[in-house]
Amino acid sequence: MISFRITTYNIHKCRGLDRRVRPQRIIDVLKETKSDVIALQEVVGMDDPERERNQVRSIAEALGFDFRMGENRRLHGGAYGNALLTRLPIISEHNHDITWRKSEPRGCLEVTLTLDSQNTAAHLLRIFNVHLGTGFFERRYQARKLLDVLANHAEQSRRLVLGDFNEWPRGLASHLLQHHFNTAEPQTRLGRAWSYPGILPLAHVDHIYYDSSLKLIKVAIHRSRLALIASDHLPLVGDFSVL
């Protein structure tokens, strides 16, 4: 049986709740999760010599992972957007533009991985890393755009959709994805576990959705002393096996 662990984490440009930019803290939090695949949002990289401004490369190198960056815009002269880091072989990548009108540019980073040495459809995993906008109508547009992206070649591989959906109350994106995918929802004795803002979470905006060809083993919000300060989000970690 093939199994893997995946994490989605909005790292807030490596700026912690103490307002200090510390990529090393993000690295240490990710090491705590022991993940095979990591989807990051609000990442600065990958073309600046300074470690604090080339976050995706410094994080990937510290973990020993390969990575792909989905640049959505330039921030202070450097690439900015979503990134996927993985110890699994990367087959292909594409960054889909889901920007609504004149709002901040947004993208969905699609990366195809192989779960073993056989690059057949049965062993491919397509991961969609997304960070939706903050506006109500913006997210409604992006939800439908995302469904169009996900519909392409849906039968050819297993799919995981994850990231920061920016929906405090459940909105169209959540309803549409729950209609087409299973949802990995961490639970506590008091109900759903929340991931934002990190030190005193009030909302569950970070999500993982998955095809029925994948089996969810476990999902949880990663809470540690370091994670509570390293970003304004907490990592969401899921363990899956292939059916």
Give a verbal description of the structure.
The chain has 5 helices and 14 strands. The chain has 243 residues and is an alpha+beta fold. It has a single domain, classed as Deoxyribonuclease I, Chain A. The strands form 3 sheets. A 6-stranded mixed β-sheet has the order 3-4-2-1-14-13, covered by helices on one side. Strand 7, helix 3 and strand 8 (158-164) form a beta-alpha-beta unit. Helix 1 (23-33) runs parallel beside helix 2. The longest helix is centred in the middle third of the chain and has 16 residues, at 136-151. 42% of the residues are buried.
Which bin fits the share of residues in helices?
10-25%
CATH superfamily: Endonuclease/exonuclease/phosphatase
Number of strands: 14
CATH topology: Deoxyribonuclease I, Chain A
What labels would you give this structure?
243 residues, alpha+beta, Deoxyribonuclease I, Chain A, six-stranded mixed sheet, 5 helices, 14 strands, 20% helix
Topology:
Elements lengths: L2 E8 L12 H11 L3 E9 L9 H9 L2 E10 L2 E9 L3 E8 L9 E8 L9 E8 L4 H16 L6 E7 L7 H9 L1 E3 L2 E2 L2 E2 L13 E5 L3 E8 L5 H4 L5 E7 L1
Parallel strand pairs: 1-2, 7-8
Antiparallel strand pairs: 1-14, 2-4, 3-4, 5-6, 6-7, 8-12, 9-12, 10-11, 13-14
